[in-house]
Amino acid sequence: MLEIIPGINEKNYDNVLNKIQAVEGLVDWVQIDIMDNTLVQNDTYNNWESFKSISSQIKLEAHLMVLNPHKYVKYLVDNGFKRLIAQVETPTSREFIDTAKTFLVEIGLAIDTTTNLEVIEPFLPEVDSVLIMTAPMGASGQEFDTNQLFKIKQIHELNPDLPIEIDGGVNKDIVPIVCENGATRLVSTNYIFQNLEHVKERIEELKNSA
Predict the structure, then answer these.
(1) How many domains does the chain have?
(2) In what helix (H) or strand (E) does residue 82 lie, and over which residues does it extend?
């Protein structure tokens, strides 16, 4: 079953809250991008305690584009995050997985556009989901990279029961293509939030394009 996950990449809490309120009741999950100028040259809002009250209204997923994601795990879980996804490009992927396993939280790993599949494959039996970046990590508003379709297809063929999430350039036109290749969760940032008044219509467009 296809799941649409609005993605939030913000430096300001009011913007985070406005976007979450706009999708409440329309989706089960939202993804919060977390960056700290270590793995990528960008940063986002990071006062974790602010999310505790939000987590009672909607399920929170963190996409950790940071060098040491294992250091964030406890803070995020304590403040309501139910799914944590770290980039496999970090040198601490093993520590991240081992740390996250000590909490009641879903664990995922993400792979960037220029990273070979061989890097993430050894970890796949240990995670609850995989996130394939379909645009380079670090910034929203980029175009979908069709060269990533083979990663979706290959991971799906080798791990047919593993949820595959994609993030980057998601719009209604690419939905049929990625679903054909095995994607089951689609993160959309710019397409959904281009106009807060049209959020519901954009989510429905994505759901109906599969």
Answers:
(1) 1
(2) strand 81-87
